[in-house]
Amino acid sequence: VRLTASTRCPRTCFLPPNLLIEVLYGDKVLAEYRTPQPADSVELETNEYVFTNIQLVINIYWNNSLLIKKIINPVEKVFGLEIPFFDVSLTVRDAKGNPLPGALIAVFDSLGSRMYTADAYGFSHVKFLYGDSASIEVRWFNITVSRTRVDPSAGSLTIDSYVFPLVVEVAGTFGPVHGAQVTVYVGGPGYSFNTSDVTGEDGRAELLVPLPPGAAAKLYVVKGRIEAERTLTVEELRASGPLRLNLDLFVDVGWFQLTARETVMIGAIVAIVSIAGVLVARYARLRQTTKNIFEIYGSGEEEEEEEGERVLERLKRVFGAEKHEEEEEGGLFEEL
Questions:
Q1: 126-139: per-residue pLDDT in tens?
Q2: Which residue(s) pair with 85 in the sheet?
């Protein structure tokens, strides 16, 4: 009995290595073959004659899993068997059609699941899928951003995902802001994610934002103690050109930042303090001048006042003596 086994897409798909094919009569193995490497087809033949009125069993195993068990009648002598292995070439792109390197690709077929990673061009070649079709999920940091199905006839497939390239342009009062922290937070059913970048000399930061249906995204920009936030929409993410965000930043010197309002307030305070200082200085000068004047002219008045008191004292003594003489004369006249 001769058996030929092949895939559904000869010359483009291959049977995997370590595939075991055996022909049995009861418990007796009449023929077996194990593929040492990928092969487009396999042929094996029993090494002895068998009766035509018996039943033979064909078993096919891969990685210790029984894929096919088939009962045949040896009357036909030659048998062909199709084993549903197939390959597919995948190209993963972001929402704007650019390759998405590093994307995780989860493949689910009749034998289970496997994981692949897209290369620098967003490409991955998936081999030895088994079954009539396979389900493919593209994930970006464990967030599912695309789902699709593929069958053996596909050969290659381009998958567009819900990963949006975002360029944020941060500007202050006097132009681009360098060194601002730009962060996007994404939340959805059962998951959360954040991605960050720092603005360069041109005030731009570049991020990849996964935003599948049902998710929400919020943008935060921080420069020192100055911050701003806004909610992102799918329309904004799909738009061409950078997303501009104006930061209320008037003074930006190293670790020191001020808003326009704070700058005006500080300027007003400085002006008030300066005016108060000028007034205090003028008052101090005026007071000193007044003191000097009083020191000069005040001493002359005191001398005049002392001189007047001396003259008054003399007058008192003079007039006091004359009165005493009159009293004495009056007394003498009375005696006479």
A1: 999 999 899 999 99
A2: 130
